[in-house]
Amino acid sequence: MSVIEISGLHKAFGPLQVLRGIDLSVERGDVVCVIGPSGSGKSTLLRCVNLLEQPDSGTILVGGTELTDPDVDIDLARRKLGMVFQGFNLFSHLSVLDNLTIAQRKVLRRSGSEAVETARRNLAKVGLAGKESAVPSQLSGGQQQRAAIARALSMNPEVMLFDEPTSALDPELVGDVLGVMRQLADEGMTMIVVTHEMQFAREVADRVLFMDGGVVVEQGPAEQVIGDPQEERTRTFLARVLNPLK
Amino acid sequence: MAGSTDSAPPRSEPIAAVPVRHPGRWVAAAVLLVLAAMVVHSLLTNPAWQWSVVGDYLFSGRVLGGLLVTAELTVLAMLIGVVGGVLIAVMRLSNNPIVSGVAWFYAWFFRGTPVLVQIIFWSFIGFLYPYLSLGIPFGPEFIFFDSNKLIPLFMGAVLGLGLNEAAYMSEIVRAGILSVDTGQTEAAEALGMTRTKIMTRIVLPQAMRVIIPPTGNETISMLKTTSLVAVVAGGDLFTEVQLIYGGNYKQIPLLVVASLWYLLFTSVLSVGQYYIERRYSRGTSVQAGGNVR
Ligand SMILES: Nc1ncnc2c1ncn2[C@@H]1O[C@H](COP(=O)(O)OP(=O)(O)OP(=O)(O)O)[C@@H](O)[C@H]1O
Ligand SMILES: [Mg+2]
Question: In this protein, which residues make up the domain named ABC transporter (chain A) (predicted)?
Answer without folding.
Answer: 4-238
